[in-house]
What we know:
Strand order of the largest sheet: 2-1-6-5-4-3
Number of domains: 2
CATH topology of the largest domain: Nuclear Transport Factor 2, Chain: A
Shape: elongated
Order of helices and strands: HHHHEEHEEEE
Number of strands: 6
Helix content: 40-55%
Structural class: alpha+beta
Largest sheet: 6 strands, mixed
Amino acid sequence: xxxxVHAPWALIVLIALGAGTCFYIANARLDHRLKRMAxxxxxxxxxLAAIRLFFPTNIEQVEQSTRELCQAAVDANWxxxxxxxxxxxxxxxxxxxAATVQGNPDDVTAAAKATYDAQHVTLIKIxxxxxxxxxxxxxxxxxxxxxxxxxxxxxxxxxxxxEWRRSARLWLLDRVTLISVGGESPANFPEVGRLRGx
Length: 198
């Protein structure tokens, strides 16, 4: 369903609140005409909400996939992790000495798993996402906090750029780039973001 038919949640809530207010006033005044109008508005708001719930926008789909991708890494469910990757997925260099991992989902998944195992990651939590769409590409700027033994259990705050591309009816992750570590360039932390095997 085209994103253009989706009403913003704020508008839906506003319509529902307006309908509720009209219904309350109609009951107090015994105004049946106003009551019917309020019920109609409530039904309209419910229909708009149903569309948003059952037919999420492209950006909502991608942001949900981003959450599920991170959760798959936390759960060490690498089969699930790989299912989100495009056939030409690329992980950009995560440190000055690291090479770009490119080629296929198997290589990228193996590199991610090796890093996960080596650093003993215990938590990956998304703290913020901002997404923009351009044609068949959605770029999500994702802020993540992670815990791992390699940093003595201290949280690491990182920012990643994730590019998702539409493939048939699915959105698949096409490129991941580390933007910052603790608000600074990864060039200042050559080992923190480095993928094993790079």
